[in-house]
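User: Please predict the structure of the protein below. I'd like the answer in structure-token form so I can feed it into my own downstream comparison script.

Assistant: Understood. Taking the following sequence of 269 residues as input:
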Amino acid sequence: MIENKPLIIKLGGSLITDKNEAFTARKDIIDNVCLEIAKVNRKIIIVHGAGSFGHPTAKKYGLHLGFKNKEQLKGFIETKTRLHFLNKMIVDDLVKYNALALSFQPLTFITAVNGRIKQMNIKPLLNALKLNFIPVLHGDIVFDEALGFSIVSGDQIIAKLAPKVKADKVIFGCDVDGIFTADPKKDPKAKLIPIIDSTNFKNVLKMIKQLEVADVTGGMKGKFMECLNLARKGVESVIMNLTKPRNLTAFLNGFSIPCTRFISFKNKN
């Protein structure tokens, strides 16, 4: 039954934090999104980005480069502390609206090799879903067999997790309507690309590579690549703007909203 397949919702760092101000949450947006999520009557997994609670410290200590010196370990702890604070903020907001939100720290069940996820023990998460908890994960620093530690983005976690839990769909919530032909925040002529499938993904990828990368986890290019991975594995994903109130509710109720949909092209040439 489709109702038993979990919906994965990504709350992007640009959505829930102000990336121009270190350690600054966009509390009104978090509250609005959590209220909408709490009303969804189905199994849900939430993965949120780190935004300004993770990237500034990660850059300062070069955490994305792996273990180089003992000074980085202070940055490791500082980043984890900041991430815990942001994660707790989201969990507390969901609980406020009577959602059974439960924090899951990726560091405790994911390991990587050279920045890519190698192992993911999803049994505790599946048990949580059976009891109708809403697991709340986030992009994280994890132990890395080659680098000592590395950063795995929320998008990478989702690309690995979605097929394992047989997710029905993945929604990537951010602060723009989807993928555009140019940066919509800088170019008023930028046009939204509503559908990405087996016929146009190569051209879109060429365009994406020309856009600036804003953070240590790859920005929109990283998101595109993980959505592409999902499409190849048979999982549809959607990039949409969750700064707009009731956008999520409208989409889940079958209404048309501006967004970019990645159509599954598993088993297609």
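That's the full token string. The chain has one domain: 2-262.
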